[in-house]
Structures are given as structure tokens and as C-alpha cells.
Amino acid sequence: MSDCIFCKIVAGEIPSRKVYEDGELIAFHDVNPAAPVHFMIVPKEHIDSLEDCHARHEMLLGRILLLAPVLAKEQGLNDGFKTVINTGKGGGQIVFHLHVHVIGGGKLLHV
Questions:
Q1: pTM, whole model, 2 decimals?
Q2: How confident is the prediction along the chain (111 residues), in pLDDT tens digits per residue?
Q3: Cβ of 1: how many Cβ atoms within 10 Å?
């Protein structure tokens, strides 16, 4: 998607503070952090939201969820962290490219 900011980050057109990258995923720090540690794990494939995932995305989604605690620990979140997936406008999604927020290191609101 040519106007998607996350696709531009994946393509290297917009710089980011990368935490991780492989052939399918990229993780980078949020530019508007909600806590001392706040990064996002983003599939390189453009998928608008969790709502747009299908059975073929099962392994990709599993990889994201298994990667989250590994990267959280690497970022110093040894006492836990929060994961958030905003889905659709009503769910607070602003960038319409699937991403999982990993947040921690400060006082977090309970959901």
C-alpha cells in the first residue's frame, strides 16, 4: 500500500528505531510511547487489521505472539508487559496495517 506509513517503514523509506527484523516481521519503537518501553511488532505483509486475518495468517500471528515476550525481555521488561491490538476505528486503530503494541516499564492502566 503506497500511502501506508508502516509499509514505508518496512520498505526503508521512513526511518525507525528497529528492535527486530526478519523476512516476515519488523519491530520498532513507537514514536508516541505510552510507557518507557513501547514498541510494535508489524508483519511486513500489508494486512489492514486483525479483522482481515484469515487461516493462512495463523503461523504469522503465532510468530508475533511468541516473539513479543522475547523482545520484551530484551528491552528490559522482566516484570511483565502489556500487548495491545487495536482493531478498526471503533477499537482505536489509527494506522490501518496490523500491528501489536508491546508496552511496559511504567504504571500501566488495567483493562
A1: 0.93
A2: 579 999 999 999 999 999 999 999 999 999 999 999 999 999 999 999 999 999 999 999 999 999 999 999 999 999 999 999 999 999 999 999 999 999 999 776 665
A3: 11
Q: How far is CA 68 from CA 3, 19, 62, 105, 109, in A?
A: 27, 11, 10, 15, 19
- Selected catalytic residue, list 29, 46, 97, 99: 99
Cβ neighbours, 10 Å, residue 75: 20
Is there a catalytic annotation at residue 99?
A: yes
CB of 98 closer than 8 Å to CB of 57: no
Work out the burial of residue 17: count CB atoms within 10 Å of its CB; fewer than 13 is exposed, 13-18 middle, 19 or more buried.
exposed
Q: Are 39 and 27 in contact (CB under 8 A)?
A: yes
Nearest to 98 by CA among 22, 42, 24, 59: 42
Distance from the Cα of residue 60 to its chain's centroid? 13
Report the C-alpha gap between 16 and 52 in whole angstroms. Answer: 25
